[in-house]
Design brief:
The protein has 14 helices and five strands. By secondary structure, the chain is mainly alpha-helical. The longest helix has 30 residues. It binds tryptophan.
Amino acid sequence: MKFKERVFSGMQPTGSLHLGNYLGAMLKWIDLQKTHECIYCVVDLHAITVWQDPGELRNAIRQVTAAYIAAGLDPEKSILFNQSQVSAHAELAWVFNCVARLGWLNRMTQFKEKAGKDRENASVGLYAYPNLMAADILAYRATHVPVGDDQKQHLELARDIAQKFNNDFADSIRAAGYEDGQFFPQPEPVIVGPATRVMSLRDGSRKMSKSEPSDLSRINLTDDDDTIAKKIRKAKTDTEALPSEIEGLAGRAEADNLVGIYAALAGSQKADVLSEFGGRQFSEFKPALADLCVSRLGPIAHEARRLMADPAEIDRVLVDGANRARGIAEPILGEVKDVIGLIRAPS
Ligand code: TRP
C-alpha cells in the first residue's frame, strides 16, 4: 500500500512553553502545515504517566493549545486536539502492549532517566509510554513525525512495532485486501535540526528547559516585554566582541547560542548575523536581540492570553479537532480489530 503523506506529532501539556519549544518544535510544525496534512495532539494521557495535579493539568492542556494557535497553528487547516478525547489511542496502545516485547522497552533510555533509581516505584504507564506514542502515530497511519533528538529512540520503537504487527498478522492482513502486506507504514522522523537547539541563557552547555530552577535561564512565551529584555541583558556571555566568522564561535557556547537565537528569530543564518554584528560588543548586540525577541514573541504571548480569557472557546476547538481525528482513527482501529480476530459491531 502506498501510504498518503501525513504528519503527526504530540506535545506535552505543560503550562510553560519557552523559546526553545518555539524555535525547536513549534515553528517546524507550523511550517509543515503549508505542505502536509497535519495532526497535532496534546498528549494528556502521556502527561499522567507521572503525577499531575488535576486543576493544573486541565489548565496546561488549554495553555498549550492556546500557545500553539497563537504561534500560527491553524486549527481549521490542521487537526488540533487532546489525546484522551479519542479513545482509539488508548485502545491501540493496548494492542501494542501485546506486540512490543519487554526487551525492547527495557532499552528505552528515557524511561531509565525518568524513573531514576526508584524504578520499582515508577508507574506502569511510564514504562509503556513508548507504546502509546506508537499508537498515537499509527492510529492515523502517519508517515512523518517531527520530533526532537530525545524522541528518536521512541520513534524507532514505533517502526519496530509497525513492522512486527505487519509480520505477526501477515496472512490476515493479506486476506483483508492488503496485497503487499503493509498494514502500517514505517513512520519517518522529521528531526528538528540542531541549528534550532536553544541553550540555557545561564549555561551554554545545557538545553533551555522548563525544569531548570532559574527562570533567568529561559524566555517563556508568556514573559512580558520588560522581562524578555531583562533576561537577555542578564544572559551569560564572555567578554570578547562578536567574531566576524562562524569559526570564531567555537568554544564560546553562550555567544554561539545568542547568535543562533538571533538567526532563528530573524529567519536567517548565523553567518548573516555575524556579518552584521561581527566586531561589536555584547552591549550592542544584546539590545538588538532583545528587540527582535520582543517583536517576535510579544504578539504571540498577547494572543495566547486573549485566547485563554475564553476557555470555553479553546475547549470547542479541541472537541472539533477530536471529532475530525476520530474520523480518521476509528476506521483504522476497526480494521486492526478485524485483522487480529476481535469481534466488533459493524461500522
Ligand atoms: N513523547 C513526546 C515528547 O515527550 C510527545 C509525543 C507523544 C509524541 N506522542 C507522540 C511526539 C507522537 C511525536 C509523535 O516530546
